[in-house]
Amino acid sequence: MNNSIYDINFNIDKDKLIEESNHCQFVPINRVTMRLFQLSSKYTKGKKFTDYLNKKDNDWWKRQDSWHTSINADTKLLSKMPETTRILSIFKERLETNEIEANFFTQKVGTSAKMHADVGTACAINFILKGDETPIMFEEDGTFYYKNALINVSKKHMVPEQTSTDRILFKLRILNMPFEEVREKLICTKEPIYVN
Ligand SMILES: [Fe+2]
């Protein structure tokens, strides 16, 4: 068992989530937005901004406009997003924490996402809504294809060029519970749906 990715089996309504993502505002993930996120997160203390990126990719992080994240939905917006709310509340209950945020990520066909660690996020549960023919690659542990998985986003990773379609991801960002602890909670749950 590796400490980078753990496949999970959990039913979601992909079409509904894609529809709900249209309510959200999106911003490009670049040095400006990542730094803002680092400054506003209570979980990035003691870390330097450069810890999250590789220096050789500096230029890309300044100008990329092909990879976007949705801005956190407030309560009013979440009330228009029943499938997002349903999944979020199930995982908050199972993991016994409120420190989970739901976001959508989009990556345009023909583009990649350079090596990085996710700022202010201990680990994340990713549901690929579109574009699961492209893998995730970890600096240390190599390449993995998945559909729904718990991902250790505090380890450096990247997504290579998206080949056939735009990629859309629904992501539960778990702010302060490490990968190993979340995996343990998913495995130990009474419901068998989380065992791969
Ligand atoms: Fe990431």
Radius of gyration: 16 Å
**How many domain modules?**
1
Mean pLDDT: 92
* Residues in helices, as a percent range: 25-40%
Overall shape: it is globular
Query: Main beta sheet: strand number and arrangement?
Result: 7 strands, antiparallel
Please tally the helical runs, counting DSSP H or I stretches of 4 or more residues.
6
**Poorly predicted spans:** none
Briefly say what this structure is.
By secondary structure, this protein is α+β, with helices and mostly antiparallel strands. It contains 6 helices and 11 strands.
Describe the structure.
- This protein is of the alpha+beta class and 196 residues long.
- It has one domain: Jelly Rolls (Sandwich), CATH 2.60.120.
- Helices cover 27% and strands 26% of the residues.
- It has six helices and eleven strands.
- Strands 1-9-6-11-4-3-2 form a seven-stranded antiparallel sheet.
- Strand 7 and strand 8 form a beta hairpin.
- It is globular.
- The mean pLDDT is 92.
- The site of fe (ii) ion has 4 residues, from loops.
- The site of fe (ii) ion (FE2) has 4 residues, from loops.
Brief descriptors of the model:
196 residues, alpha+beta, Jelly Rolls, four-stranded antiparallel beta sheet, 11 strands, globular, binds fe (ii) ion
